[in-house]
């Protein structure tokens, strides 16, 4: 798929076959950034060929490190020294990962100048959780003209408690602490599998990171990190995308190397909805057998139902019997795709969940919410979807509308499909190999 390209989807064909999952998007580029902490060459295996990886590669190269591929899905990264501590504005603003560069740049050169991150338009990404943590380690932080300036000759271990769970905030603090002086204790840290993948990678290089009960992570600073070889974990968002594509088309698809432990919340909801799956040494199989029934879903940080799965699940809800309630608690504006689903025939009504303790119920900062935002929607099914022309606004919205097009009658045209390239490797091509009619 080319930038600003389009996909023409002819719906109504059950998908059958197998897909081998690539490396997780939400782990891949972060492992690349973490590799900058080591002056020796590291090897990372099982990369997906996605745009976010290419963008991160360009940023790393601009800083003076060397990145090259030698073999299939493998990246070699060597950063014996960094010639720059500044992420180029054009590259940084295009990436939601730019703030993660602050940690390795601070550690390696004592300073960092990083553009504030861009990426998907699904709501504010609260950088305060990152920056307050870095300040606790001794960093001086300033923001001027859409640029983040950080400096500290030597970070020092500290105890820091996250006010709310933060996936990337936890990763930032881990990277900042592995070479800091002394011990760092992170409380109310995030539990996502991608974070465990990062911890495993850093520990292989000689870091001393331990998970403790009750969302605590302890990091004892070491003097240096050494070379390591690490395989990127499989992408759980990709797994859910193809699993639901199989179910909404009444198909049968095997996901090679999918890991049950990464998908427990999704599989529990799927079982309740009557969706069929099998677990084997090969991975997971998803297949259609009998009607689906409505199930209520509320997103939350891991081990809860992932926010990235919510838009995709909404397509399944349109094909399920009854009323499904979906509540989004992680991002302020993640229902942007719903208007297009309604145009395709989905019966969707929005509502306000009205929790008794909003600040505890929602994982986003309440001050970042927009007036009039509703964070719940009720979907009545089963509904016959009809193809139409829609524009993609972000990665998961694009995959969601593609799934709706596969389940719909007639033709669906997706424009601005470059968003899909950021998180999926050859999404349309892989669907075609499963029998989808896409041009």
Report on this structure.
This protein is of the alpha+beta class. The chain folds into two domains: 222 residues, UDP-n-acetylglucosamine1-carboxyvinyl-transferase, Chain, CATH 3.65.10.10; 207 residues, Alpha-beta prism (UDP-n-acetylglucosamine1-carboxyvinyl-transferase, Chain). The protein is 31% helix and 23% strand. The chain has 15 helices and 23 strands. The protein has a four-stranded mixed sheet with strand order 21-22-1-23. Strand 4 and strand 5 form a beta hairpin. Helix 8 packs parallel to helix 10. The relative contact order is 0.16.
List the helices and strands and how they pair.
Layout (H helix, E strand, L loop, with lengths): L5 E5 L5 E5 L4 H10 L7 E4 L5 H12 L3 E3 L6 E4 L10 H5 L8 H8 L1 E5 L12 H9 L3 E5 L2 E5 L7 E3 L5 H11 L5 E5 L5 H12 L3 E5 L3 E5 L8 E3 L4 H13 L3 E5 L7 H10 L2 E5 L2 E5 L9 E2 L10 H10 L3 E6 L10 H6 L3 E5 L6 H4 L14 E6 L7 E3 L3 H13 L3 E5 L2 H6 L3 H7 L3 E2 L1
Parallel strand pairs: 2-14, 3-13, 9-10, 17-18, 21-22
Antiparallel strand pairs: 1-22, 1-23, 3-5, 4-5, 6-8, 7-8, 10-12, 11-12, 14-16, 15-16, 18-20, 19-20
Protein name: UDP-N-acetylglucosamine 1-carboxyvinyltransferase
Keywords: Cell cycle, Cell division, Cell shape, Cell wall biogenesis/degradation, Cytoplasm, Peptidoglycan synthesis, Transferase
Subcellular location: Cytoplasm
